[in-house]
Amino acid sequence: MRFQQHLDDAMAAATPLLGRGRVADYIPALAAVDAEAFGMAIATVDGEVCEVGDAGRAFSIQSISKLFSLVLTLALGGDAIWERVGREPSGSPFNSLVQLETENGIPRNPFINAGAIVVTDRLHSLTGDAGTAVADFLRAETGNTLLDTDPAVAVSEAGHGHRNSALAHFLASYGNLENPVATVLSNYYAHCAIAASCRDLALAGRFLARHGVLADGSRLLTRSEAKRVNAVLLTCGTYDAAGQFAYRVGLPGKSGVGGGILTIVPGHGALCVWSPGLDAAGNSVAGVAALDAFTTSTGLSVF
Ligand code: GLN
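^ Glutaminase, sequence as received from the core. Prediction below:
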């Protein structure tokens, strides 16, 4: 349990910030969450799990799911996805439309909404059901058979999804969707609305700390692909705050508007934090502070 004290200290550092920021309410079903909740868990490469606070409580993973849809798409379809989506930070909000027009319908990266919608489209073609593919993967890596989409959140988001609809239609107008817009969006909402805990997500992300090797010892990604996914996480995983996140935390990471952030400590483990209050870029205020404290006290970062 070499990380327990560091997790306890990280929670103590973040506690004064609980309730700060804004809970995402553009998806009405997310607004009901406990704004003061906080959890953190690390799953190490050698099988240890340490946790603190509400680490076992399920929350809406939202954009963290974009990491899993990307790695499944790479595993099943290889590099072809990079002809349809870029790998540069956008410097724009996660739901921005503006670059799509100036850049001919090719989203800047797979972690902003436009890019994730393209990845979901490709994964849907590869598997026949992108939403289920992500949930199946998470169940397999965590051993949590109850892990699934929260249908109330998916319905709530679909009912208020004008921006994502606009992005998807815009992509379709450039010929960058293979499936009907409604199919792609319902699969995108299905994986964003998966409910999982910090513990689950740390277990599910651990293969990236193991350079692509899954819980059962099989390989999902080559070592080189795992390195590349971690690089895109570092540069694009926290949207237009990716520079600030690298500065403070120094780890590849993916955030979601549910307040979760999953980070990878290559060679050591996957570390997930959750607290619902968000900053202006959509990243958890207490979560970033806790990760900052953890990487400072352990000295573990990619830098
Ligand atoms: N499902 C959310 C959306 O499309 C995901 C956004 C996020 O977590 N940043 O708006």
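The chain has one domain: 3-298.
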